[in-house]
Amino acid sequence: MHVCMSCFEKYDSRFLENINQYGEIYCPKYDCHGDIVELDELIAPTIILLNQKGYITKFCCSGHWYEMSSTPYIFFYEDCVPDTIPESFKWDEHKEFNSTMRARYEPNEVESKYDWVFRVNKELYEWAKDLEEI
Questions:
Q1: Would you kindly state where each structural domain of the chain is located, as residue ranges?
Q2: How far apart are CA 75 and CA 62, in angstroms?
Q3: Is the separation of the CB atoms in 39 and 5 below 8 Å?
Q4: What whole-number distance in Å separates Cα of residue 81 and Cα of residue 20?
Q5: Are 102 and 114 in contact (CB under 8 A)?
């Protein structure tokens, strides 16, 4: 899914023709011209909501049930880091990624990775809904 991070309009990639030499895509709306980014569909509503509330994100992933090492994460710009994070998430320990919150999947017999990815993304969205605007 492609989304303009200024007006939050969603676009089908087949209709995005204004790609510059660096591979960046700009919103085709006459009065916008914001940056268009590609988002995983499962995390897109959360990322849109966070950015609308002022928690500007740089990178994210919803996590992929078919890849064991792929887990949900959100990287925030340093001056936009929220005070709280969802229960399933922790801040990355590496200094260069200290504004990244990430969920870690621990294989178990109770919850499959497929179910876990959906549950954690739902938790993430519910958390974002409750955040105050900055």
A1: 1-38, 39-134
A2: 12
A3: no
A4: 30
A5: no
Walking along the chain (134 residues) 10 residues at a time, the average pLDDT comes out as 91 68 76 90 96 94 88 92 94 77 89 94 98 95
Residues 6 or more apart whose Cβ sits within 8 Å of residue 119: 88, 111
Distance CA 118, CA 53 (A): 23
DSSP state at residue 79: G
Query: What does the chain come to in residues?
Result: 134
Nearest to 6 by CA among 55, 58, 48, 60: 48
Q: What is the pLDDT of residue 17?
A: 65
Q: In what order do the strands lie in the sheet with 10-11?
A: 10-11, 2-4, 35-38, 25-26
Q: Would you call 12 helix, strand, or coil by DSSP?
A: coil
User: CB 42: neighbour CB atoms within 10 A?
Assistant: 21
Position 109 scores a pLDDT of 82
Closest to 31 (Cα-Cα) out of 62, 6, 64, 50: 6
Written as six digits, the tokens of 6 are 């200024």
User: If residue 119 lies in a helix (H) or strand (E), which one and from where to where?
Assistant: helix 113-130
Structure tokens at 97: 């990624």
